[in-house]
Amino acid sequence: MNHHASPILTAPARMTQTGATLRRRIRHAAIAGIAAAAALALAACSSTGSGGEASGGSNYPQHPVQLIVGFAAGGALDLVAREVAKDIPQDFGQSVVVVNQAGDGGVIGASAMLGAKPDGYTAYLGSVAAMAIQPWREGVDVPYKGPDDYTPVAGLLYFPQVLAVSASAPYDTPQDFVDYAKSHPGEIRVGTGGVGTLPDVALQEMIQELSVDITSVPFQGFAQSVPALLGGSIEAIISSPADVAQHVASGDMKIIGSFNDKPIPSLPDVESFTTAGVTYTQNNYYFVLLPKDTPADVTETLQDALKAAIESDSFTTWAEANSAIVQYKDSSELGETLQTDYDRYKKIIGDLGL
């Protein structure tokens, strides 16, 4: 809108204008009116388009989507993220780009997602540890609590947690490991992906339940614990089978037990630590989240793309090879699961004093 005042013509001046002058003024006024109308229309379209892009709208996605992983490259979460990104269907229309933001058991990555615009372009591949365990830990400041603080999108899969050791280690079963730990107090060092991660909780639960003297060695992600085990700096690691699969295949490591409550289909000969007296069992469930207040249509679009990705032949083959169990949950189901886990770990973390 033009806010400059128009000059006021006196009556004599108006009377002396020629017909040509009047026609020119009328023509200019008409052009100005058309331009103003066009500008208003463009502004309306821009406003609608801007709002649609900010909220995703029916045009989502219009550019690549970032998928934040809260751990270093090379770990199970990272591997899942990259496989999911590769298998996103073409009709999604855009690529998914994996971004690693490691630290604080996944909290740094989750915080980055929560601080992003709720437009569907910054997602987070989370796990039970980051979203249900870390909020209850003493001294840990997280910008979220339960599912009301973010938008659940889709549940993807879970990994059983296993204990892997050097192939030359003097124990082959959970009971062997526990017996050795009791007869060699303080000698065994077990690496995990960080304080408050699911493997760390599993280890602390075993130490408390069985009264064994084992040292926990937290790393910034599982990828860092693997070379530590291979180099002899630690005696074992608790992780997902995917973290150690290639080293088991090469003969450098062996998996001697799981923290699952039932046999793992791809590892039928691996016993559960329940056989050695551990009652705590947990599968590490992975899922995708978006910031709070992300529009429902954007959430649904990404949800559907993720469902198609994990149900693809390529992803199914990868999951089977890495002992992952695909278990899709939509946004509503995932929200219920996260609330259940959040409530459950309040007691567990309190009991362990983490």
TrEMBL record:
Record keywords, A-Z? Receptor, Signal
SUPFAM superfamilies, per this entry?
A: Periplasmic binding protein-like II
Instruction: List, alphabetically, the Pfam families matched.
Output: TctC
Tell me where the signal peptide lies: 1-43
Which CDD domains does the record cross-reference, listed alphabetically? PBP2_Bug_TTT
Q: Which InterPro entries match?
A: BUG (IPR005064), Bug_dom1 (IPR042100)
Q: Which parts of the chain span the membrane according to its record?
A: none
Q: Which PANTHER family match?
A: BLR1237 PROTEIN, TRICARBOXYLATE-BINDING PROTEIN
Q: Which family does it belong to?
A: Belongs to the UPF0065 (bug) family.
- Supply the name of the protein: Tripartite-type tricarboxylate transporter receptor subunit TctC
What organism is the protein native to?
Answer: Compostimonas suwonensis
